[in-house]
């Protein structure tokens, strides 16, 4: 590394900056990173000299400018690859997802580029946590992220807090907005960055604009058990470099993995359809239970009303018999009690009208009871249909288990890269077992509904017998 340090008796500020940048990111200024479609091309630069010339340095040979351009191209590739792979994956990303890890590494290099060195008691310190703390002052809603980062128990260094901040901002889909906020305030960033740093130049604004595309992906990152303080952030260029020989040799293996992925996607689609069917059936069962409860309550009210009407009919009969006896007694003494007989006849007419009203109301209650019996028959028919649907769901679950067994046998014959697919299959089996438990619960609820329907039928039969 000493060969790269310019030998000059009176070093200038420009010399110090070029030498420091070359020592920190020598792998970025020895190569020019360019984008060929969606691949990365590294071209070695033999015409770059780190020794300062008395003539002004051109932009094309400036190592700092090359570093900025390389980092911007790496950010483009990383963001594009992350979006495409996340959309193809079709699920929420976690901390173990390789393209997501590489994106954070590239962002860390972009944030560290051109940072001013601060001297502390423990030595020199370069951390991008300081610029990120500015976001809280410029955007109050970012205070929640900063407070969450400070409350994390496992973070002890500013570097770890900066990494946690980037992850939380990505999960909130606010990373692009926050980056644009601090890039627009270069007067505040000048306290932390050199004038030619990436965050101070137009490349930083370009990267902030590219980050808008990350709002289409969902990430769920757990940072409690992750050691963010001691992680080594190294860019993996192999994820983006062209390798024709390797792709031709592993075509057959890629074909097998593609077939397994297609089968996995098919199983997941079936799983989603089955989950939707189970949810629909559960909603229907809940609706049936509510209607059954309502019918039970109405039946209880009708029973109470019928009992009341029967008591009224008995009372009217007793009163009618009493009035008949009174009429017989009144006939023997009609001359003396003519006025009392007229009143008795009037009361008899009123009681007769009351009895007719009671009989009409009893007929209405009988009609309601018949409608309730018809509703119970329709409920039993619906329960039978749900049982048939549950049988079909069981058959589909058995087919899924057979497909999972086939996938397990196929995945064992693939290379070490297919072990992750086995974990996915295991998760599918857990989901299927959960669905089986849900189906068993549905069967139990169906049996309970059948039992309730039978109880209702028996109660309706008893009511018919009482009416007869």
Question: What can you tell me about this protein's structure?
Answer:
The relative contact order is 0.07. Helix content is 69%, strand content 4%. It contains 14 helices and four strands. The strands form two sheets. A two-stranded antiparallel sheet has the order 1-2. The chain has a two-stranded antiparallel ribbon with strand order 3-4. Among the domains are: 65-241, Methane Monooxygenase Hydroxylase, Chain G, domain 1 (Up-down Bundle), CATH 1.20.58.900; 348-452. The model is unreliable at 1-15, 17-30, 41-59 and 243-250 (pLDDT under 50). The radius of gyration is 41 Å and the shape is elongated. It has helices spanning 13-24, 26-29, 63-89, 98-112, 129-138, 143-151, 158-171, 175-183, 186-189, 202-210, 244-249, 251-332, 338-412, 419-467, and strands at 31-36, 39-44, 118-120, 123-125. It is mainly alpha-helical and 468 residues long.
Label the structural class.
mainly alpha
- How far the N terminus sits from the C terminus, by CA atoms, comes to 109 Å
Query: Could you say what the CATH architecture of the domain at 65-241 is?
Result: Up-down Bundle
Task: Look at the structure and name the CATH superfamily of the domain at 65-241.
Answer: RUN domain
Organism: Amphilophus citrinellus (Midas cichlid)
Subcellular location: Endomembrane system
GO cellular component, one term: cytoplasm
GO biological process, one term: regulation of axonogenesis
């Amino acid at each position: 590394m000493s060969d790269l340090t310019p030998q000059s008796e009176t070093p200038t500020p420009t010399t110090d900056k070029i030498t420091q940048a070359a020592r920190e990111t020598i792998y970025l200024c020895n190569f020019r990173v360019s984008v060929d479609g969606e691949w990365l091309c590294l071209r070695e630069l033999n015409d770059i000299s780190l020794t300062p010339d008395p003539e002004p340095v051109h932009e094309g040979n400036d190592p700092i400018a090359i570093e900025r351009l390389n980092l911007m191209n790496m950010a483009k590739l990383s963001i594009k690859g992350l979006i495409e792979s996340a959309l193809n994956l079709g699920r929420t990303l976690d901390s173990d997802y390789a393209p997501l890890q590489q994106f954070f590494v590239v962002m860390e290099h972009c944030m560290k580029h051109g940072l001013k060195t601060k001297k502390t008691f423990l030595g020199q310190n370069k951390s991008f946590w300081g610029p990120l703390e500015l976001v809280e002052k410029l955007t109050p809603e970012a205070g929640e992220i900063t407070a969450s980062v400070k409350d994390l128990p496992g973070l002890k260094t500013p570097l770890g807090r900066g990494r946690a901040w980037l992850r939380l901002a990505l999960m909130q889909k606010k990373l692009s907005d926050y980056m644009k906020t601090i890039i627009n305030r270069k007067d505040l960033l000048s306290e932390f960055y050199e004038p030619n740093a990436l965050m101070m130049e137009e490349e930083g604004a370009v990267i902030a604009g590219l980050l808008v595309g990350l709002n289409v992906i969902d990430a769920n990152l757990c940072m409690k058990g992750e050691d963010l303080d001691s992680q080594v952030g190294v860019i993996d260029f192999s994820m983006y470099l062209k390798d024709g020989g390797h792709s031709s040799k592993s075509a057959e293996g890629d074909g097998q993995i593609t077939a397994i992925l297609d089968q996995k996607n098919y199983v997941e689609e079936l799983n989603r359809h089955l989950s939707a069917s189970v949810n629909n059936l559960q909603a229907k069962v809940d609706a049936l239970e509510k209607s059954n409860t309502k019918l039970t309550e109405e039946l209880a009210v009708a029973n109470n009303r019928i009992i009341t009407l029967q008591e009224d009919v008995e009372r009217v009969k007793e009163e009618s018999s009493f009035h008949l006896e009174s009429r017989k007694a009144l006939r023997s003494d009609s001359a003396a009690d003519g006025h009392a007989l007229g009143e008795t006849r009037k009361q008899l007419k009123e009681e007769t009208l009351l009895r007719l009203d009671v009989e009409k109301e009893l007929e209405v209650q009988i009609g309601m009871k018949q409608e309730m019996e018809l509703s119970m028959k329709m409920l039993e028919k619906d329960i039978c249909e749900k049982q048939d649907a549950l049988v079909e769901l069981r058959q589909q679950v058995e087919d899924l288990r057979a497909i999972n067994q086939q996938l397990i046998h196929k995945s064992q014959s693939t290379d070490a890269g297919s072990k992750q697919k086995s974990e996915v299959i295991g998760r599918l089996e857990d989901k299927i077992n959960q669905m089986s438990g849900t189906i068993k619960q549905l069967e139990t609820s169906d049996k309970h509904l059948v039992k309730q329907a039978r109880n209702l039928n028996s109660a309706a039969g008893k009511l018919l017998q009482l009416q007869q």
